[in-house]
Write a structure and sequence with these properties.
- By secondary structure, this protein is of the alpha/beta class.
- It is 44% helix and 12% strand.
- The protein starts with a strand and ends with a strand.
Length: 568
């Protein structure tokens, strides 16, 4: 049989069965209860004498674990502590994470995960996830069969070329997949037993990694061209064959590859790219919530996206779709969403324009009324010339929103919107305190990384975090429960609308257009319900209508609690 199976007894209570010896139960994080194994389990599995006499409760374990966590000093040490806990006892890990989510999410994921990824080979302790590399791609079916997770329903997959704002990280990108799946479980209650992080190790172009004697990845430069395409094709074909019901999330691919891979496989298996679609949806949600404070329709805004990577272009596409939903024609919507990259405003016909930017490029005749130079306008020139009222930062360039740029946006609107969304913290285009100061407190502010409240003229203003974690866990749960064949654009906009509606009016009035991280699980449930309902309405779900969708979603969410373990 499998290592273990989840079952339900006649009264509807869950339990597990296994034929593993007791010592192995203490070594498998999905089965290990540590000091919480019951007297009956200790007898049945030969654990008597191997554990302390006291049978601890889960809450006692949480208290002890959190006390030890507080004794760590640096954020990276805290990250390593929690990762070691996850590799030892997953129920306890998620119980601690859920109880202290607002404090620990920046440790488990951004911004601390960036440092963990950079030091991944040096911090490595325990095997987690699956590596498909140039050394085993010829045996990819066999490798996929080696995973101890027999019923994978959700995989996060990266090739590590575009990690956060820190670029190519080679094998270290596995840390991103692990962190992302931790949030799927903590935020949306997806059973960790059906999740799988996957690293596509196609090499790295980082000489410092290739020269590092402790680097754990394959030691050659990245595959390119047809070799790369063939590698990904072979992986997808084998993955689909092995796990035909699984949802796949593409994570942190480079700019052009992110779009190419998504377009190539989005109809082959249910899949999405969080950098493109998740970032777009969470941004649209923040803008919709901002309209509740500004009392101005989104269709009146002129929106500038600074940064034309996968995230920036994904945001521009998603916001354009949101404007169309609100009544604009596609042409009107595209004219209101401008994208600026390192060379200036993205304009159609520009020499060397990458294919993935063509959809968001402005027509030269549409900017002719305010720009007459052959060279594309700069960020400041675009803000002033186009009358930009919303500034969205996805450039990965810390301090890119200088004072003159923010003040120019403030001249165009009584309630300017400034989202400095780049991660990690040092890459934020501006700090909330700077934006408040430069706009005399009139701006609606959000950031990608967590920032403290801003004190302004006697008031304290929380800063909303435009974190994809408000979208992808609920979206993934909804798509999995609906058993969709493909993820449609409408699902992402339904998720964005649901998140905007969920955000507390009191937080919006105080300046935050996203919920608090402490309410992430409730927000994810709300998003999942909206995705299931939308997929049922549009006919993309293979799920038979469950009746009460809210109750169905709630019942399907995994909770971090110990269940009885019985001998098979």
């Amino acid at each position: 049989m499998k290592q273990f199976e989840r079952r339900v007894d006649d009264s509807g209570e869950p339990y597990m069965v296994t034929d593993l010896p007791g010592f192995m139960l203490t070594r498998l994080p999905l089965l290990n209860k540590s000091t919480a194994f019951s007297p009956e389990e200790r007898q049945t599995f030969g654990l008597e004498g191997l554990l302390p006499p006291h049978v601890a409760t889960l809450q006692e374990q949480i208290t002890r674990t959190y006390g030890n966590y507080q004794r760590t000093t640096t954020n990276i040490d805290k990250h390593v502590y929690l990762r070691n806990l996850q590799d030892r006892n997953e129920v306890l890990f998620y119980a601690v994470l859920e109880e202290h989510l607002e404090e620990m999410m920046p440790i488990v994921y951004t911004p601390t995960v960036a440092e963990a990824v950079q030091r991944f080979s040096h911090l490595y302790r325990y095997a987690r996830g699956l590596v498909i590399s140039t050394e085993n791609i010829d045996r990819v079916d066999e490798v996929l069969g080696n995973t101890p997770m027999p019923d994978v329903r959700l995989a996060v997959v990266t090739d590590s070329e575009g990690i956060l704002g820190i670029g190519d990280q080679g094998y270290g990108g596995m840390g991103i997949c692990i962190g992302k799946l931790s949030l799927y479980t903590a935020a949306a209650g997806i059973d960790p037993a059906v999740t799988l992080p996957i690293e596509l190790d196609v090499g790295t172009n980082r000489a410092d990694l290739l020269d590092d004697p402790l680097y754990l990845g394959v030691r050659h430069e990245r595959l390119t061209g047809q070799q790369y395409d063939d590698f990904v094709e072979r992986f997808v074909t084998a993955f689909k064959r092995r796990f035909p019901a699984a949802l796949l999330q593409w994570e942190d691919f480079s700019k052009q590859k992110a779009f190419t891979v998504l377009e190539r496989f989005r109809d082959e298996l249910p899949s999405f790219n969080d950098d493109i679609q998740g970032t777009g949806a969470v941004t649209l949600a923040g803008l919709l919530a901002a309209t509740r404070r500004s009392k101005r329709p989104l269709t009146d805004e002129v929106i500038l996206v600074h940064g034309a990577g996968a995230g920036g272009v994904g945001v521009a596409m998603q916001v354009t779709g949101g404007l169309i939903d609100q009544g604009l024609t596609p042409e009107e919507a595209r004219r209101r969403v401008l994208v600026v990259d390192s060379r200036g405003l993205v304009v159609a016909g520009r020499k060397g324009l990458e294919p993935y930017k063509e959809y968001v490029a402005q027509a030269p005749e549409d900017i002719a009324q305010w720009w007459h130079d052959d060279a594309p306008p700069s960020l400041l020139q675009t803000v002033e010339g186009a009358g930009v009222t919303v500034l969205l930062g996805l450039s990965g360039q810390g301090g890119a929103f200088a004072e003159d740029v923010v003040r120019a946006v403030a001249r165009n609107s009584h309630t300017p919107v400034v989202f400095a969304m780049s991660n990690p913290t040092e890459n934020s285009e501006a700090t909330p305190e700077e934006v408040y100061r430069w706009t005399d407190g009139r701006a609606i502010v959000a950031t990608g990384s967590p920032f403290p409240e801003v004190e302004w003229k006697g008031g304290r203003h929380p800063v909303g975090q435009a974190n994809n974690a408000f979208i992808f866990p609920g979206l993934g749960l909804g798509a999995m429960l609906s058993r969709v064949r493909t993820l449609t654009p409408g699902m992402f906009r339904a998720a964005a609308q649901a998140l905007a509606e969920y955000t507390d009016p009191a937080r919006i009035a105080a300046g935050a257009v996203y919920p608090s991280i402490s309410s992430l699980r409730r927000a994810s449930r709300h998003v999942a319900i909206a995705v299931v309902e939308h997929s049922l309405d549009e006919g993309s779900a293979q799920l038979e209508h469950p009746g009460d969708v809210a109750e169905f979603v709630t019942r399907s969410m995994w909770e971090p609690r110990y269940v009885p373990i019985r001998r098979a």
